[in-house]
Amino acid sequence: MTDSVATPPTRPSGPRADRPLSRGRTDTWRHPAWVRLAHWLNVVAVVVLIMSGLNILLAHPHLYWGVRSTFADPWVSIPPIPNWLLIPQGRNLAEARNWHFLFAWIFVLNGLAYLLLGLVTRRFGRRLWPTRADLKGIGPSVVEHARFHFPTDDHARSYNVIQKLTYLAMILIVLPMMLVTGLSMSPGFNAVGGVLLDIMGGRQSARTLHFISAGLIVGFILIHVGLVIWTGLFNNMRSMVTGWFVIEPPGSTAGPRLRRRRPTDAGDAS
Amino acid sequence: MNRRRWLTGAVATAATALLSACGQAGTSLAEQARRMGEGLTRRTQRLLIPRDALAPTYSRAEISPDFRANGSTDPAASDYLALKANDFADYRLVIDGLVERPLSLSLAELRTRPSQSQITKHDCVEGWTSIGEWTGVRLETLLNEAGLKPEARYIVIHCFDALTQTEDGDRYYESIDLIDARHPQTLLAWAMNGETLPVPHGAPLRLRVERQLGYKHAKYIRRIEAVESFAHIAGGKGGYWEDRGYEWYAGI
């Protein structure tokens, strides 16, 4: 018991201890299996939902606000969308709806399981809920993002504050919004969800909000994938596949080559 | 970097498999997917939505001035044209199949039944919504009059119109289960926005089944048939669009 106190403590970031690697790098446990499974199921579901959703949208590529369509005066009309972005390839409302609702079920059941496990295991509180210190550091975090300059050392053990807030907004607002606006387009559900329909301002508003939320998701995906590549495609992908994430030696950052700090000047790392 | 190469290879293989599955086996996969997704949706909605839960209704001010007429808007079938020429004075609605007392009713006779009006939204499968006021007789009233036999499970609505506008083209038809058939808002409507139902919207009689998408609201009704199964009718999927890949349960 007392012996173990003598060894320098490694910072555990999960149920599994760090594994030292060569050249001062450390393998740290980041994502449990259920997070990885939920993530990839969600990737497949969201991609199919967006691509089949675009096909459905093309059956009437006009959006309106309110309870009814004002055909002569749409809020916005959608330009033609290339076939490669559609499921199935080529316009086909019947099949697109098949895919859309099947993967909507996968998206919803997977999302519910993820939310439930995130709350029960308190993982949301540990990894996603910003601390007071996080929120105070929002200014520097904005600067860091603006310079595309991200730490890959010990600071990368936890998500930065912008990352936390973005993930929370996606998990708690945007993704649930897809379900709520989608259900509000169902004439069956409208018979019990009339209040929800009123809150949204009618079925055509629900349809437009469904589209806007989908746009936010597409925006998130582009930035998310961009940053995954920027901050180390292999390391990030490996962590979401195997659960293990490599921490670089102190002072390491991902960012413009010229600014990359070497382990030798770790001492003056800010 | 063997690991990286292996990972790249694995992702590429998976992507290729997925793409070829979508491209080649698409039809059968979509078939299976439809059965899974639609079945789950239908069961869940039937479980969670009370039988008599009402579709939302709207005020007169919200009625669409530009209610869109979709699908057939002016049937070309000769039997329909003959009836239309005489302003549907010779029209008879036939209700038969698995009923105790088959009915044959003129429009005047239909209007002697208790009628009701409702202002509801019409949600097209394409995505648009129009709002209109519908007046007619509840389908349940007529089904009670005819007396459904115990083995009757579905109500099939046979129509005059063929979307091909040809004499031998497939006539439109639809089917609903007894939950929808007996729903308090399910009407055979003869009036729209307070006026005789116009031809583009299904004169002389159209179905209103307010918790389903537009294609279930069959227009130009010719005959109503109670059946145990619709597998033997036309393509066997329970409706004109159902035979062409659309869901039978159109509650979403």
From TrEMBL, chain A:
What Gene3D superfamilies does the entry give? Transmembrane di-heme cytochromes, Chain C (1.20.950.20)
**TM segments?**
40-59, 99-120, 165-189, 209-230
Predominant location: membrane
Query: Coiled-coil stretches, from where to where?
Result: none
Region of interest called Disordered, as start-end residue ranges on this chain: 1-24
Q: Which domain of life is it from?
A: Bacteria
Q: Which family does it belong to?
A: Belongs to the HupC/HyaC/HydC family.
> What's the protein name?
Cytochrome b561 bacterial/Ni-hydrogenase domain-containing protein
Recite the lineage of the species: Bacteria, Pseudomonadati, Pseudomonadota, Alphaproteobacteria, Caulobacterales
TrEMBL record, chain B:
Q: Which UniProt keywords apply?
A: Signal
InterPro entries attached to this UniProt entry? OxRdtase_Mopterin-bd_dom (IPR000572), OxRdtase_Mopterin-bd_sf (IPR036374), TAT_signal (IPR006311)
Organism the protein comes from: Brevundimonas denitrificans
Q: Name one Pfam family in it.
A: Oxidored_molyb
TM ranges are none
Q: Where is the Oxidoreductase molybdopterin-binding domain?
A: 86-228
Q: What is this protein called?
A: Molybdopterin oxidoreductase
Q: Which domain of life is it from?
A: Bacteria
Enumerate the PANTHER family for this protein: BLL0505 PROTEIN, PROTEIN-METHIONINE-SULFOXIDE REDUCTASE
**Signal peptide residue numbers:** 1-25
